[in-house]
Amino acid sequence: MSDLPQFPLPDSERAPERPRSQFPSGGFGQGPALVPSVPPPRMPSGAPQQDGPPTRALAGRSRLLLLLAVAAAALGVVVLVAVVFIAKRWKTGVNEDAIVRVVTGDGRGTGFFVQPPKGMDGAYVVTAFHVIASGQPVTIERRLQMAEHHVFVEAYPETELAAFDAEADLAVLHIKDVPQKRFEVLRLAEQPAKNEAVISAGFPPSGVAHRAELSTRPGRIDQLVKFDATDPVMGKVIAANKIEGLLVDTNLEPGFSGGPTVNLAGEVVGVNVLKDNIHRGQDGAVSVVVLRDLLQKIKSYTPPTTQDAEALLKRIQEELMMLPVDDRAGVTSTEFISHAEMPQLRAFIREMRSMEGDNRAREVGKARLANNAVLGILLARLPGKSLETYQASSTRDRVSGCEDRSRGIERFLGSLGVDGSQRSDTDCLGFALRPLAWDLTASTIEWEGAVRDYKVMKLDAIDEESRIFQASVRIPNVSNLLPIHMVWEAGALRLKLFDKNGRLYALEGARSATARDFEGTWGTAQQRRPEPGTDGVEMEKSEKVTVTISGTDTVNVVHQFLWARYASKGAFRCNMEKTITTKVAQALSGHLHNGIVTGGSDKFEYTSNGCDPCKLCYTQDRLFVLKRYGERLLFYRTDGSKEPEGVVLTKQ
């Protein structure tokens, strides 16, 4: 059109002009629908029409209209976003953006962001302790809704345990090096109220969907109660009516563990724990009151001192080591030992269980040894008594009984009795975890059966990022400093048992015993008495070792053993004699390493009147271990075909 010639019209035939919009094309100002039309000014008849730029007044009015239109459009966008935001909250009653999935190596649960403790910064996630109780690394997964049916997941694997309450089943995780402002948080209610309408949120498991998304369940608080503090491993009540909690009817599922239960204002009133063992058939949540108390215990990190290390060693001795054998399984290990040690402990137990009772022989160096013999000697090399709690009959009975109930062969071959269908899904290794933790703790601190004054001379940081320290400890009447490793975890120092490669610290470092500590004659004797489990038979035993030192670390041992059995009524049928006597004399030699003597037999002499006819034989010992335990000497020996036999000797 612009290329066509223009012919001006007479004034009487010219159409009245409309003022043009001052907005550029496109955007919020486009089109007459958004801009009110201003009628042209009436001009006196016969007045000349103005051509060229508008007047100042008209230009100012246009600019004002422009500003008003832009402001109105911006306000519309804000209102639209607010409506979407409110609609999202109104739909669920909970801020879904503050809820995360908590992932470990063997399970999944739910968690939610909360405000960091007063005076601190950082991203903190609340969950249930049983979700992360395995001690495996924890990853926090955050969902981001990018578009309808499209969810992006942010993963945060660098986490640490900030605080926990195992009895209340609560834990607080800290995402390392990430500020809190990156995430939305859930506010905490002051108090839950009975009959209050609530919504519980969590990530339920699914056998249909590969990855089920967040689910919310409406309901109400049935009751405000106090849960018993229970021990999930031993299955017993620790303290009655101790934990403030809620009973809710929101139909929770296992994946909801650690997720929030909120009121209609979106405030957390409880944390889903799903393990009310007393009130069956009802869903349980720990009260927000308990959560508040736990959050207040989180403090900023400050490097520990030698006094902190000494306090830990004192607690370990007085509250853990002094317990009778049968009571040690009832103490939560993570009170004293790093929570991150649990996976290594479980792996250790699995390896031991696979070798215990396995008498299949394999080549070890130049010898052919049974697996259980190898295991026994390796364990005997640990300082202190070798796994006295793990090997106690009370521990063995719990573990083996659980394993028997868990066997599923009846599913294929049918049951032999009433109990065949009563299969247990209990974690059987859990019964061995605490006893083993006690034994390895005893080895690590060189426990000798009585409380000692551990003086920490210095505390060195050997891994500042992981907050791992080595304490150099002075023990009375011991010349060497004992290295003990510790880690700062959940606001306190805790003992470390394994290095980063999974090797026990108890096997390393300068141990307290020297070669001269083994010199002399050591022995034990059992006077004549009825033989356990055998009617009409009495027995007596004596054992003696004489230790001499060659050079600095070569140890020579003469071992003498006497075992006599007496028939109190008549004679033994196998040899038709009233007495069976076995005498052993053997020469052993070995070397001292880290306070432990390990070696084998050089010469062997043996006499018995009961070997061939009565099958009561003594074969030459291929391996032995000697170690000091306080004022006593521990002597372990095996012929390589069975587990080592241990005996406690005293100085003669």
Care to give the gist of this entry?
The chain is α+β, with helices and mostly antiparallel strands. 19% of the residues lie in helices and 34% in strands. The protein has helices at 56-92, 129-132, 288-296, 306-321, 342-355, 371-380, 393-406, 410-413, 430-444, 611-614; strands at residues 99-104, 107-114, 123-128, 139-147, 150-156, 159-165, 170-175, 197-202, 215-231, 236-248, 260-263, 268-272, 283-287, 361-364, 367-370, 455-463, 468-474, 482-489, 492-495, 520-530, 537-550, 554-567, 579-593, 596-608, 623-629, 632-638, 645-651.
Helices and strands, with pairings:
Layout: H1 56-92, E1 99-104, E2 107-114, E3 123-128, H2 129-132, E4 139-147, E5 150-156, E6 159-165, E7 170-175, E8 197-202, E9 215-231, E10 236-248, E11 260-263, E12 268-272, E13 283-287, H3 288-296, H4 306-321, H5 342-355, E14 361-364, E15 367-370, H6 371-380, H7 393-406, H8 410-413, H9 430-444, E16 455-463, E17 468-474, E18 482-489, E19 492-495, E20 520-530, E21 537-550, E22 554-567, E23 579-593, E24 596-608, H10 611-614, E25 623-629, E26 632-638, E27 645-651
Antiparallel strand pairs: 1-2, 1-4, 2-3, 3-7, 4-5, 6-7, 8-9, 8-11, 9-10, 10-13, 11-12, 12-13, 14-15, 16-17, 17-18, 18-19, 20-21, 20-27, 21-22, 22-23, 23-24, 24-25, 25-26, 26-27
Helix pairs in contact: 5-9, 7-9
